[in-house]
């Protein structure tokens, strides 16, 4: 009986839980991540305590530790979210014969992922209080893998003139910075449009010196390939 | 007599001042900036007090306030240092007829400035505890001017295909991100070579779709122009 009552959606008697209305039906783990993301970006990682997080979610600190190994565990998961979607796709890209189309796809989806991550958490790794943590070192290693993937794809696309002027890792860094430019766009208050995601993907090919005609072919091959590779076809290309 | 004694370089009796050996002959204002840069980047802006700064410099807090309007005044000056050298050069560039050479020069010198700034302070603006300050809003306005200068130069260089895919401000953001890639390179512990600065400048032209042959001409025009424009000719081009 009392169990049935607690499943009832109407609030029961007693102290109300401090759950924001929009998060009421979310998984507690996801609620903790979302609230932490907001607080870390808003007031800094060092400036946020597990108590702040627990209070904002409306749970006890003990419940927070049931889901995460404290603040570092939450940070690790948030940082991972900024690189994992792209890294997971690198393997799939081997199935695409054109390195230009593969680079277009990776850059587009990586930028899209950063453009839609809650509270623009792509900003976190650059903060000193974050960048000196062991979790940030793990993140840096994962970002390094991604940079290498971009650099290696970029070298496959690049002409001799490009490889003469830019080494593989610098090329990877330049492409990754083009992708991460959406973080800055969001930070300055603008939303990132689909046309801009296309602009990022196309620019990553330009950085590799791919001529315009080939860029247009690559974008078309990418749109055709994506339907076969991933279950849900994203809205690619300019609108 | 006592004044002559205090001018003597040999340490007198009494409590020694906590000045790091390397900074002993620096201007107090510069010492405060250098120490603050190290502390802000190392332990965060919010995590550093004016007391920490004064102690690390080896002066009293009152002396610090003689030179700066507190921590915000120091932050404002450090943030300014990350954009001012490039903004100051934008005006000079009007004298260069080739927009490609002008963009090469601006990107090269901006990247060089970020690559040599003490303690990689280019990292500061991205931190939440910094980005929410009034000083960061002033910085954002200055960076916005720089982005516009890059975007406008980029549009002058870009082909129709480029302007069809990337709007002026996004182009500026992409070029600025290529320039700022040296901040990430330094953050991961690598020094930025002259060849990499050339790589950044060349990549900024590639982002605008400038063909390779024109890029090579632009780099040569830039090297020739710089000697006439600025007193000290930097070491341009690949080694």
TrEMBL record, chains A, B:
It holds the Pfam family TetR_N. PROSITE patterns: HTH_TETR_2 (PS50977). Signal peptide: none annotated. The keyword Transferase does not apply. Residues 49-68 bind DNA. Residues 26-86 form the HTH tetR-type domain. It comes from the Bacteria. Residues 1-27 are annotated as: Disordered. Keywords: DNA-binding, Transcription, Transcription regulation. GO terms for molecular function: DNA-binding transcription factor activity; transcription cis-regulatory region binding. This is TetR family transcriptional regulator. The lineage of its organism: Bacteria, Bacillati, Actinomycetota, Actinomycetes, Propionibacteriales.
């Amino acid at each position: 009986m009392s169990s049935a009552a607690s499943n009832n959606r109407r609030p029961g008697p007693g102290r109300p839980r401090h759950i924001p209305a929009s998060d009421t039906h979310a998984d507690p783990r996801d609620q903790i991540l979302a609230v932490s993301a907001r607080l870390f970006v808003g007031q800094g990682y060092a400036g946020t305590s597990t108590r702040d997080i627990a209070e904002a979610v409306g749970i006890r600190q003990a419940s927070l530790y049931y889901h995460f190994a404290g603040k570092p565990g939450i940070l690790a998961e948030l940082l991972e979210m900024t690189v994992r979607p792209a890294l997971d796709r690198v393997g799939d890209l081997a199935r695409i014969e054109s390195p230009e189309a593969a680079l277009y796809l990776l850059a587009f989806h990586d930028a899209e992922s950063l453009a839609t991550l809650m509270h623009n958490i792509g900003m976190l790794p650059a903060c000193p209080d974050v960048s000196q943590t062991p979790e940030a070192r793990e993140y840096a290693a994962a970002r390094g893998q991604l940079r290498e993937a971009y650099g290696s794809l970029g070298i496959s696309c690049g002409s001799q003139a490009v490889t003469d002027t830019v080494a593989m890792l610098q090329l990877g860094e330049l492409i990754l910075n083009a992708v991460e430019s959406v973080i800055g766009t969001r930070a300055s208050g603008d939303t990132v449009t689909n046309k801009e995601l296309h602009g990022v993907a196309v620019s990553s090919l330009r950085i590799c010196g791919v001529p315009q005609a080939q860029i247009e072919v690559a974008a078309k091959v990418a749109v055709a390939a994506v339907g076969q590779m991933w279950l849900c076809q994203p809205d690619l290309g300019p609108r």
